[in-house]
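Hello Y.,

Per our agreement to keep a running log of every chain we model this quarter, I'm adding this entry. I've kept the format consistent with earlier entries: sequence first, then predicted structure.
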Amino acid sequence: MKKISVAIVEDDPVWLSSLKIFLNNEEDLNVVATASTQKDAVEMAKNNDVDIILMDINLSENNMDGIYAAAEISQAKNVKIIMLTSIESEEVIRNSFTAGAVNYVLKSNYMDIPAAIRSVHNKVSPMEILLKDYSRMKEAEQVAALSNAEREILSLVQQGYSQSKISEVLFKSPGTIKAQINKLLKKMGVANCKQAIKKINSKGILK
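Predicted structure for the entry above:
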């Protein structure tokens, strides 16, 4: 029997070790890779072909960077991501789905994790289809929420302008440009300008 390959992204080493042992005790599951930061998670996903990634939402102090990692990974690779969270928040769960996750499990319900892995691995659920549709609608809302000034900056970023050059072109201070870029990245649900450019290019935005 071919085992389901699993990767775990978790910053708590004790929880990571315990979860790895717990899952490897399941005869059809095999934890093949782990990571503890957003950067390491993205690199791990690039270098390992796994079936399922278990992603902790908070990889540092209340930063929700697991959601950013999920977004970056799901854009680059066809892998199913299950979010692990101790936060029972509708907004956090909604943002996880928008980032590309197909399910979530509360850490307090860790006994449900093996079943969740099997469920998303063995079939494409109606929920996944609904989540993809929701993600597309959410992206349209994110773009519509950008102000004219933010669209102008995004257009310059797309053309390859650096922040200092954008500051010169728009006659604004570097600090103002940096703040506006951070704001538009947050609105678009991406972690950096590279992801923003990829999103606008793939969706035909600003054309």
